[in-house]
Amino acid sequence: MREGQQTHVKSGEQAPDFAVPAVQHDRTICLADYRGRTPLLLGLFPGLYCPFCRRALAQMASTSEHLKSLGVDSLAIVGTKLENARLYFRFRPTHMALGADPNLTTHRSYGVPRPTDTPAFRQLMGDTYVNPTGDLQAPQPASAVAEALAALDGYQLTPTDQREHQSMFTQMKGQFLIDRDGIVRWANIECGGKEGLSGLGKFPSQDDLVRAASIVIGVTR
Hints:
By secondary structure, this protein is an alpha/beta fold. Helices cover 34% and strands 17% of the residues. Helix 1 crosses helix 7 (206-216).
């Protein structure tokens, strides 16, 4: 919930402006860069400590090539410090545009939920078993699956990752398709459906994203 009360930005609403530092270049990326020029798939992710985010970023980067052929640009904004993002993507380069937003200002303005860290929420995390990517042999408690996937990946958290994990691990992910007039035409929010927390780590497939983008630009597929 945005600021604990309002819901996320929905289809038909004006996309909030944003301005974040670019990961690949020494410049600022703004929504105004795309308005009047091209539709945009905007992905909002927590820090790189999150294995679901790392997988979703790789998938989104792959999908961005297909969207580009439809005339749709892609931008992923990651909730981590700029230096940490540059370190990560130095070893995992991508052609997809990237921005860094360690204060999660863009996530808040788009209303991507960040549940309050309470004993009840932690209990729910422990009681909910997930295996959204199928990488684990069996579903594990949501509270333990990130560590299990990190071990499987051989991923070593940086000190920045560790701090961000402690401070923002409840932050959910969101994807928004914005038309060239700056209007949101499609949105997907992690755990936003009927399945609730059991939807943790699920991300729209490439086909889902291409289909949504095709509708936005008036292409039938």
